[in-house]
């Protein structure tokens, strides 16, 4: 099938390549990008045969709203827009309503996989009407990891981004647990090789995981994380998860604590946040701050 893809950053560029490897045609656009296939949204839309599917991988908020607004003027009835960025789930209903007024479908899709997704595949959580999801299904199949798992039609519009938000909240708590354990091991005089302790956990333990593998990878690069400053940003989804928990009266003590630990990293150089920063860099290519 043909797909228009808006946004060719760390995720979008690799997603374009994976979809092409599956035999589909992708017309990619990003402003001021040398890797773009076309030079404007209009040119991208004109290059696609109707009915069209256009996938967005742009920053949440005003940037996504701007692209949705422009596509609403360029697309035709029967076309479908997929928001694959990290938009807040509450924005999805508005985007779906705005596009539905012009008979354009809307699907929201949470995407996880970071810089490793090109080779390993991307975990996908999508929400929307079955009719619109089915139109995008060949792209979902191209992006997901091999096997039965890795993709889910999570529910109605907003369900995909809500599921991805909760996923990221869990990710916050898991990274925080690894970071706290690493700092305690580093502080104990009796433990002389923290990196190898982490490595020993990769087989036969209940905490073995991809995050643990990435922690070992980060320690192989910088055994005591001395080149990193203990600063870790938050993308917003951790905050949204905690806010949703309050709205639904669901207790999230671990996730909430991990979010506030991120805030503490901005007040002083936190050893735990060195590990969190290293993990975010490993799985998502997120920027890190040098200790110097």
UniProtKB/TrEMBL annotation:
Molecular function per GO:
NADP binding; phosphogluconate dehydrogenase (decarboxylating) activity
Question: Which InterPro entries does UniProt cross-reference here?
Answer: 6-PGluconate_DH-like_C_sf, 6DGDH_YqeC, 6PGD_dom2, 6PGDH_C, 6PGDH_NADP-bd, 6PGdom_BS, NAD(P)-bd_dom_sf, Pgluconate_DH
Tell me if Oxidoreductase is a UniProt keyword of this record: yes
Q: Name one GO biological process term.
A: pentose-phosphate shunt
Gene3D superfamilies according to UniProt: N-(1-d-carboxylethyl)-l-norvaline Dehydrogenase, domain 2, NAD(P)-binding Rossmann-like Domain
Q: Is-annotated flag, keyword Oxidoreductase?
A: yes
Keywords annotated in UniProt: Gluconate utilization, Oxidoreductase
- The 6-phosphogluconate dehydrogenase C-terminal domain sits at 160-287
Family recorded in the similarity comment: Belongs to the 6-phosphogluconate dehydrogenase family.
PANTHER family attached here? 6-PHOSPHOGLUCONATE DEHYDROGENASE
What protein am I looking at? Decarboxylating 6-phosphogluconate dehydrogenase
**Which species is listed as the source?**
Streptomyces sedi
């Amino acid at each position: 099938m043909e797909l228009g893809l808006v946004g060719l950053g760390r995720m979008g560029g690799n997603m374009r390549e994976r979809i092409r490897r599956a035999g589909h045609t992708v017309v990619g656009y990003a402003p001021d990008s040398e890797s773009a296939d076309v030079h404007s949204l209009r040119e991208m839309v004109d290059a696609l045969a109707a009915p069209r599917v256009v996938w967005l991988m742009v920053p949440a908020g005003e940037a996504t709203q701007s692209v949705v607004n422009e596509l609403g003027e360029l697309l035709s009835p029967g076309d479908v827009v997929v928001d694959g960025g990290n938009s807040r789930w509450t924005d999805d209903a508005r985007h779906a309503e705005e596009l539905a007024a012009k008979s354009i479908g809307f699907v929201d899709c949470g995407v996880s996989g970071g810089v490793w997704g090109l080779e390993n595949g991307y975990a996908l959580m999508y929400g929307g009407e079955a009719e619109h999801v089915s139109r995008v299904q060949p792209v979902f199949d191209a992006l997901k990891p091999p096997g039965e798992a890795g993709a889910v039609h999570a529910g109605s519009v907003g369900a995909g981004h809500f599921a991805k938000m909760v996923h990221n909240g869990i990710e916050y708590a898991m990274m925080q647990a690894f970071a706290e354990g690493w700092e305690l091991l580093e502080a104990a005089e009796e433990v002389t090789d923290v990196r190898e302790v982490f490595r020993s956990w990769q087989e036969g333990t209940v905490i073995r995981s991809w995050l643990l593998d990435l922690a070992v990878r980060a320690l192989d690069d910088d055994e005591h994380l001395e080149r990193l400053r203990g600063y870790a940003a938050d993308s917003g989804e951790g905050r949204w998860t905690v806010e949703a928990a309050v709205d639904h009266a669901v207790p999230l003590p671990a996730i909430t604590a991990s979010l506030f630990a991120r805030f503490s990293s901005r007040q002083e150089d936190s050893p735990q946040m060195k590990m969190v920063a290293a993990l975010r860099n490993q799985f998502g290519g997120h920027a890190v701050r040098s200790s110097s």
